[in-house]
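Case 350 in the screening queue. Each case pairs one protein sequence with one candidate compound; here the compound is guanosine-5'-monophosphate. For every case the pipeline is the same: read the inputs, emit a complex structure as tokens, and attach any notable structural observations.

Predict complex for case 350.
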Amino acid sequence: MPPTELHPSVDRSRFRTEPPPELLAAIQEARTVLCISHVGPDGDAIGSLTGLGWLLQALGKAPTLALADPVPEDFHFVPGQERIVGPDGVGPVYDLAICVDASSPDRMGPVYRPQVHSRFPLAVIDHHVTNTFFGQIHWVDPSAAATCQMLATLAQALDVPLAGPLAECLLTGLVTDTLGFRTSNTDTRVLATAIQLMEGGADLNQIVNMTLRRRPFAMVRLWSMVLPTVTLEEGVIWVVIRQSQREAAGVPENASPGLAGFLVEVREADISATFTERVRENGQVEVECSFRAKPGFDVSQVAFAFGGGGHPPAAGCTLPGSPDQVVPQVVAALQALRRSQLAQEEQAYP
Ligand code: 5GP
Ligand code: MN
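Case 350 output:
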């Protein structure tokens, strides 16, 4: 499959494969550090946040780990996750804030309060191609398969050994963001780092079993309720998940349905989407959109255009309105993207 030109408007000169000196200096000079990852945390968010905590602790710093949402049960095995606090546990004053695995400031949710927290510098460590460079210090490397991969490089730059709980945390993000070393961005760096982390004591078998090979029965019940209406048109396959269906199946609000990754494996589809309806306490309805693409198609462009972000093969956004309002326009955008990427490919390789 020929490569697709991604985000022609992105300023690639700002991307770095090594941590910039100003990041290393800021970490060395700080003592108290507010560490944050993204709402709806996944394995790379939990792994990079707790990994950063162990790394800073090894350097003699005092890290506070914060997340807007609770840690999903599947990640309760990750060492240090019990130290993660919610918005109420975050104080007003630190020497430095570091945000990991988030592409835009809204992804931090209410744990970052700009009114008070903008008085000290914010460093951004992330691997999303859609990163908006929202801090004062940035290390963005979209060639990294996981933010945990970047933290392994950071630990080595700061002479912190990749061993013990740090190794377990970082291997968690490597495994989950590469779907068990299967995504197209799984390169030799990832495999070499995984070997180092395993040599440092990380338990690959446990991580794979806990994160990739387990789901609650309620989730399968939900799949059985929504799959009867699965639709495939013009290479785009999608399902809509109503809040009433999620509640009837007994799936907790913070659980990721994981269906987009399953649907993109359908042979006749190039792009998949799940549209999850959420009715907020104030009655406002919104739709969480989750996209996946086969290699050669870049769904991060559509997610970014709708105010979200992500990676070429996996991206998402949240839009106000009911599924009836949101789904037709987003599906049309995904189909238009697919047509344009097929046409580009045709031009490049007639
Ligand atoms: P998932 O479909 O697993 O929820 O997310 C896939 C990718 O898209 C992840 O890298 C995630 O960070 C990104 N993503 C999902 N939803 C949003 C969103 O609402 N905003 C942004 N900026 N990124 C999102
Ligand atoms: Mn990630």
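Case 350 observations:
- The chain has two domains: 12-211, 217-348.
- Residues 1-6 have pLDDT under 50 and may be disordered.
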